[in-house]
């Protein structure tokens, strides 16, 4: 199978060795690994994480024929006490050719700390004119997304550079109205292929992903199964191509 798919949101440090093989076999040729350091206490945890993904895991992915790119940032599930040091370092990491975005960043609990950290990273994204990948939580989603979009509006970032991930019917209207791009996490606990196909007009500007991690049951190449479902339902091949790689390639320049 020719490698044409782009995994637009995954976590390379959480993918088992066999997972890279599955991704390659399914036709994934490029991937974007988002930053996450659960329960991080120190900025150095993120610095080491950024280097590990851009070094060791990039080489590991390449051994399977996959070109790995990365996003850098402070995830709301792991905000270290000295988080401003990470923010200050982001422009340096973004200058690397293999780093294509800030992310995964966002809000879980609408705390003052989370809002401050998100605002600071959106300001970096705006100043550096790079995309930013926004996390959305499992609960209270419309209210959280509304708060994040309000912050983005005040910062003045270009909405077309924002990917609001884990999009579903509950928040897709907010995403589209703001002009951001929906990240489409294809798995049972997020967006399923039948729901996507039924509402293609709402999700057409999006980019599919599997958001693989080893902390929940999921498939490292799960979104490719959704692609196969779309083909079985005679979805237009141009739209499939855009959702499964074209939109991500255009946004990230890969």
UniProtKB/TrEMBL annotation:
Pfam families: TatD_DNase
Superkingdom per UniProt: Bacteria
Record-level Gene Ontology MF annotations: hydrolase activity, acting on ester bonds
Database matches in InterPro entries: Metal_Hydrolase, TatD-like, UCP005295
Protein name as annotated: TatD DNase family protein
Source organism of the structure: Desulfallas thermosapovorans DSM 6562
């Amino acid at each position: 199978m020719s490698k044409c798919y782009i995994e637009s949101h995954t976590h390379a440090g959480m993918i088992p060795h066999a997972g890279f093989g599955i991704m390659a076999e399914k036709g994934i040729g490029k991937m974007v690994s988002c930053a996450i350091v659960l329960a991080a206490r120190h900025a150095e945890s993120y610095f080491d994480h950024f280097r590990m993904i851009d070094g060791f895991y990039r080489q590991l992915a390449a051994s399977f024929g996959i070109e790995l790119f990365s996003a850098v940032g402070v995830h709301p599930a792991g905000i270290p006490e000295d988080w401003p040091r990470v923010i200050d370092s982001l422009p340096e990491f973004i200058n690397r050719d293999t780093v294509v975005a800030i992310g995964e960043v966002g809000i879980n609990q609408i705390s003052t700390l989370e809002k401050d950290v998100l605002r600071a990273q959106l300001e970096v994204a705006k100043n550096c004119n790079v995309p930013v990948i926004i996390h959305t939580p499992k609960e209270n989603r419309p209210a959280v997304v509304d708060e994040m979009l309000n912050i983005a509006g005040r910062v003045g970032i270009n909405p077309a550079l924002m990917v609001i991930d884990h999009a579903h019917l509950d928040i897709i209207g907010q995403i589209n109205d703001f002009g951001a791009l929906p990240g489409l996490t294809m798995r049972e606990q997020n967006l399923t292929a039948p729901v996507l196909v039924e509402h293609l007009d709402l999700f057409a500007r999006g980019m599919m992903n599997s958001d693989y991690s080893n902390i929940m049951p999921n498939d490292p190449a799960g979104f490719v199964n959704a692609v196969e479902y779309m083909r079985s339902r005679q979805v237009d091949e141009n739209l499939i191509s855009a959702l499964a790689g074209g939109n991500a390639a255009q946004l990230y320049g890969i």
